[in-house]
Design a protein that fits this description.
Beta-Lactamase, 677 residues, 4 domains, alpha+beta
């Protein structure tokens, strides 16, 4: 315990403590400013990386969209449009007769995408088509993106538009990703036009901005907490040094005055001690008690009422009930937790404990001694744990925790939603209960080796739900180590990405396969043909290429309708596929009624003609479509590599020329391109 008077030594110590505290406060201020600067720089770097990733991701999607637009519309619409209006002045381009029908097809093809505007430029940089019809005819020959596209370069940039138009209406104040994608002629391999694709990135950029500021706030908070911990440690060490000096002075006074009550053993244990006279209400406090509440020893009145006013109003009734129950003998101990306001206005959590040490002859309590312990940090830790638990319980990602023997200890509700296993069904078991059997033992061995070496692993994995359904998840595993550095737990977080993977597969299908027949389209076939020619060149083998055109298809399509024509093309595709059986053979649709068949390792002309005759016979059989019998035939041109072309363009041109010769010879027959002498 202490008195309210101080000698000169104590005054000097107090002055030194105040000066030291000011130095610490200035140091804290400068450090926090530095933390904010570092956090802002990190936020800026995060934003730049996020924007670059966004632009690259959108550019990849725009390339796929450009391929789809090219595959579906260029040969039939954009290409003829560019040729037909090449000599027209700019002001007449928008009045081209092909524009309305083309506009409707473009809008229909873009349904379901997030693209809101496209433009198509010819080789002179003129706007041959735009979903904003008013922009058709504009000269963009000096536009850097258009110039780059004409040179065969893909480019994208993020721009801000105060006002822009789309086929859905006028848009205000938007952030836009603009991509310029060259279109290559599949026969010549040269650029034949440029697509400009617009996509709204306002919402995504807003989310990036939110995450940026959350990152800045988190970094500032983390660094501030780290520094606060160091500051508290230094401040407490300083306080202890000063307190030790003061305590020596007090001990000397206490020994001289023989005031035994100032010798509470709890003073050195960090608890504040109070000694209350229950008859008069007078109370005496220890130095540590005063420090806990932010006061000097002489400042507060030594009365119970002054401290009662500092208790949080919501805690008063409970504390009074605890005190009365203890004094009445209904409770064996007096202890409770309450919030108390310190001198600087902050609310602290205090553990108050006490006991009656003196009673009168009638058993009425006379004197009560107790302690105050600052448990604010403990409450904050408990609150942080409750918050972390709430986050885990409410997050959409599934989590599970195992011990070092890989036995599941806990799971969150999202785990049950994704896998179908309840906590009681999963806890105590090995995570292998989710295994689908699609991964090899080497896959899991590599996973555990990486966990052991780096402490973490993440990647895609195929697992099985309780109902037997397979799903794909993105899994992240972290290794937790104990104080000795040995692995003690593993924490896994995963999310179901099956829908996303299916969407990616659908995009790949649209980009590389014909929508009607399901056969490879011109782009995919061109890639396969290049690879097959390269392989044939290495292996010194011959490759046969058939160019097939359906005879009498236009009368069927015009007379019976496009629906019947589409059904006929699907049946033709099926019969062509049935005529080739080797895995290396490829059947593709490259135009309206034009198909190609690639036959690698075809040693002789006779072998190729046998396959062609089989195709002619298959297509000559009647087709039963919507209760009608349809008769067609085919003209087939055959070219061989390397005799008729060392690359895909030359080979395809020679096969096309041979097909036209077959048509000129009367149709329903094949023609082999003459071998060079």
């Amino acid at each position: 315990m202490i008195k309210t008077t101080s000698d000169n030594a104590t005054d000097h110590a107090a002055v030194a403590a105040e000066n030291d505290f000011r130095l610490l406060r200035h140091f804290a201020t400068v450090s926090l400013v530095a933390f904010v600067v570092v956090a802002v720089l990190l936020g800026y770097v995060f934003r730049m990386l996020s924007v670059d990733a966004l632009i690259n991701g959108y550019q990849s999607e725009h390339i796929n969209h450009a391929r789809i637009l090219s595959n579906e519309l260029w040969d039939a619409h954009f290409g003829p449009l560019v040729q037909s209006v090449a000599d027209l002045p700019a002001e007449q381009l928008a009045r081209a007769t092909q524009i309305p029908a083309l506009h409707q097809k473009v809008i229909k093809l873009l349904e379901g995408t997030r693209i809101y505007k496209i433009k198509v430029y010819d080789l002179q940089g003129r706007t041959m088509y735009s979903t904003d019809l008013e922009q058709i005819g504009e000269d963009k020959s000096d536009n850097a993106g258009v110039l780059g596209g004409l040179r065969g370069l893909n480019s994208s940039e993020l721009v801000h538009q105060n006002q822009l138009s789309s086929f859905e209406g006028e848009l205000q104040d938007r952030d836009v990703i603009e991509s310029y994608i060259p279109r290559y002629d599949p026969l010549t391999g040269k650029v034949s036009g440029v697509f400009e694709i617009y996509r709204d990135a306002t919402t995504v950029l807003a989310q990036v901005g939110q995450r940026q500021w959350l990152l800045v706030a988190a970094v500032v908070a983390l660094l501030a907490m780290l520094y606060l911990a160091v500051f508290i440690i230094v401040k407490r060490a300083q306080d202890k040094i000063i307190a030790q000096h003061q305590e020596r002075q007090i001990d000397q006074q206490a020994l001289a005055l023989s005031e035994e009550r100032w010798k509470f053993a709890l003073e050195g244990a960090g608890d504040g001690v109070w000694d209350r006279n229950l008859q008069t209400g007078e109370v005496v406090f220890s130095r540590r008690f005063m420090e806990i509440h932010g006061f000097a020893a002489h400042e507060p009145e030594h009365q119970a009422e002054a401290w009662q006013a500092r208790i949080h109003p919501d805690d008063l009734a409970r504390i009074e009930a605890d005190r009365l129950a203890y004094l009445a003998g209904d409770k064996a101990t007096y202890a409770n937790e309450r919030r108390m306001q310190s001198r600087d206005g902050r609310w602290k959590w205090i553990l108050s404990r006490g006991m009656v040490v003196s009673r009168d002859a009638q058993g009425n309590p006379l004197r009560m001694i107790g302690t105050h312990t600052d448990i604010t940090e403990r409450h904050e830790r408990e609150e942080a744990l409750r918050l972390a638990s709430t986050v885990i319980l409410t997050m959409d990602e599934a989590t599970l925790v195992t011990n070092q023997h890989n036995v599941i200890l806990s799971v969150n509700p999202a785990f049950t939603v994704i896998t179908g296993y309840s906590p009681s069904e999963a806890i105590g078991r090995d995570p292998k209960l989710l295994a689908s059997g699609t991964h090899s033992a080497m896959f899991y061995q590599a996973m555990w080796e990486q966990l052991a070496s780096s402490g973490h692993w993440h990647g895609e994995i195929c697992n099985r739900r309780k109902n037997g359904e397979l799903y794909i998840e993105w899994l992240s595993i972290k290794q937790v180590r104990d104080a000795q550095g040995a692995p003690s737990h593993y924490v896994a977080v995963f999310s179901d990405i099956s829908e996303r993977k299916a969407s990616e597969a659908r995009m790949q299908q649209l980009a590389h396969f014909d929508v009607l027949t399901g056969l490879p389209n011109r782009a995919l076939f061109g890639d396969r043909l290049r690879q097959a020619i390269a392989k044939a060149r290495r292996d010194k083998t011959r490759l046969a290429l058939m160019f097939i055109d359906i005879d009498k298809f236009k009368p069927v399509n015009d007379g019976l309708g496009h629906h019947v024509g589409d059904l006929l093309l699907k049946e033709v595709a099926q019969r062509l596929a049935d005529c080739v059986r080797r895995e290396s053979d490829t059947v593709a649709r490259i135009g309206g009624d034009e198909f190609v068949v690639m036959l690698p390792e075809m040693a002789t002309v006779q072998s190729a003609t046998l396959v062609a005759q089989k195709i002619l016979a298959a297509l000559s059989r009647p087709f039963d479509i919507v209760a009608q019998q349809i008769h067609i035939s085919a003209s087939i041109g055959i070219a061989f590599s390397p005799e008729h072309g060392a690359d895909e363009h030359a080979l395809l041109q020679n096969a096309d020329a041979a097909m036209y010769q077959a048509k000129n010879n009367g149709r329903n027959q094949l023609y082999v391109a003459p071998m060079p002498s």
